[in-house]
Amino acid sequence: MIVATTENLVGHTITETLGQVFGVVVRSRGLGGNVMAGLRSLGGGEIKEYTALVEDTRRHAIDRMVANATAMGADAVVMMRFDSGEIGQTMSEVVAYGTAVRVQRA
Question: Domains of the chain, with CATH numbers?
Fold first, then answer.
């Protein structure tokens, strides 16, 4: 599965547009992670616990989006984007979305 943030794929022609696809993930850092992140924030710099949480959540959202596109019979997802937000004070939401298409090598 090709996933691209661009509208077109070099070396490919889009033959069919199948529609919007997305993958949604909501995650919460455990109590221990929140305590460690709070302590790190006192010293400044990167908070690795939250960086890892966001990276894992984005990967999981992409995996869900790809599964959605595969179920639709797509070869690729174009115009892929992320959106994120917070739910409450302890949860983060990440959505990966784009357009599922069928492609042919040019």
Answer: 2-105 (3.30.110.70)
Kindly report the backbone phi and psi dihedral angles of residue 26, in degrees, each rounded to the nearest multiple of 5, phi listed first. Answer: -120, 125
Rounded-to-integer distance, Cα 60 and Cα 65, Å:
9
- pTM to 2 decimal places: 0.83
d(CA 6, CA 55): 21
* Structure tokens, 46: 């990167």
Q: For 1-13, write each residue's pLDDT tens digit.
A: 999 999 999 999 9
* Structure tokens belonging to residue 18: 């199948």
* CA pair distance 89, 106, nearest whole angstrom: 48
Tell me the residue type at 29.
R
Indicate the pairing of strand 76-87 with strand 2-3. parallel
